[in-house]
Amino acid sequence: MKVIIAGASAIGSYLAKLLSRNDYDITILDEDEAALEQLNRDYDLLTLDRKCTSPRALRDAGAAKADLFIAVTADQTANLTACTMAHALGAKKTVAKVDDPEYTEQIDKAFFKEMGIDSVIYPEMLAAKDIINGLKMSWVRQRWDVHNGELVMLGIKLREGCEILNQPLKDISGPDDPYHIVAIKRGADTIIPGGNDSLKLYDLAYFMTTRNYIPYIRKIVGKEHYADVKNVMIMGGGNTAVRAVKMMPEYMNVKVLEKNKNRCEELNEILDEDTLVINGDGRDMSLLVEEGIRNTQAFVALTPNAETNILACLTAKRMGVRKTVAMVENVDYVSMAESLDIGTVINKKITTASYIYQMLLDTNVYNIRFLPTADADVAEFIPAEGSKITRKPVKDLGLPTGITIGGLVRDEKGMLVSGNTQIQAGDSVVIFAHKMDLKNLERLFK
């Protein structure tokens, strides 16, 4: 499969790293010679020091034979133009990164499709959705919904109050129980558990359940005393913060701390009048106390500096805040941030790459999420009529090692999967894949 990436920084370099491990034919276009040299040293791919809006450069890169053309430069106009040109040259699918949320509106999708742009992505919007999902459930590290929550995956850090520790999973999570443990992150290891495995203190456990049983999960993991989030404090007033505030549920009150006075004035113009914008440094403990940090249930650090965000969240936790969210743009810091127990970690590169990756798959697949801390991916596949996965009960499918079927949605109703479950064409099937390229699973669903 041939993939062309326009843009060698941030998202582009992460995608190159991700795809080069899976034998894709990758070409990267950029005018940053140093960035291209670094990618050439580290990965097996072709680089071109050329402008992505040059017709000749696109031809030389092989746009006519590209299965996917990805434009993720810092220039929104260049991304849109390059995708239109690549499509005209013969690229099968194109995706452009944009910086204006207006371009992501449903009404404009047909318009961009006519231009030859199959999808537009606004990373700040994707990150904001993850932030809001995290705030809605203060006791959960990660949440992933299928069909508006008919089926839910919850990543939960297990602490002393958990009542299901140190028991074989076959005794606490059988076919008739309302949840499955699809994976366990323990220290540096990810475990795809069997019936004889058990949960340990401080594990990050991934539960698959249905909407009705979320309160039950909360009880058995000992998180009922966690206060629901009503007051939120955000450090950093960038675009991700703006999108998160605009998506905030009405029952949440939010304060934004921003160091730059001019940006504060802009935020007062952009945000609703009931959002309080404060000119100050979110690392200033006296300011935090003055602004009510001790009565705040959630602290969200969204500055451009990962170290600042991590330290700010650690400070907020020391001051009694239960729920903290840190934006960590350096992928290498993500695991470290998790190990420091700061709470939910947001990385726009990983979130955006998850969205783009599903365009590489031929089958009906949706909602791919990369879970770097677990070295795993989660995806929602829809099997075709007569596909291999529909021919036998789950226990007889011979699934590859590292693969777990967490559950499925049938006729708009979520259900868990046991060994006797017979998957049907049209089901939405949730797959948890540890150290396996999702591309290799397509054969089961075609």
From TrEMBL:
RCK C-terminal domain residues: 141-223, 365-446
Signal peptide segment: none
Keywords: Ion transport, NAD, Potassium, Potassium transport, Transport
Boundaries of every RCK N-terminal domain copy: 1-121, 229-346
Gene3D superfamilies xref list: NAD(P)-binding Rossmann-like Domain, Regulator of K+ conductance, C-terminal domain
GO molecular function (one): potassium ion transmembrane transporter activity
PANTHER family listed in its UniProt record: POTASSIUM CHANNEL PROTEIN 2-RELATED-RELATED (PTHR43833), TRK SYSTEM POTASSIUM UPTAKE PROTEIN TRKA (PTHR43833:SF5)
Name of this chain's protein: Trk system potassium uptake protein TrkA
Organism, as annotated: Prevotella lacticifex
Lineage of the species this protein comes from: Bacteria, Pseudomonadati, Bacteroidota, Bacteroidia, Bacteroidales
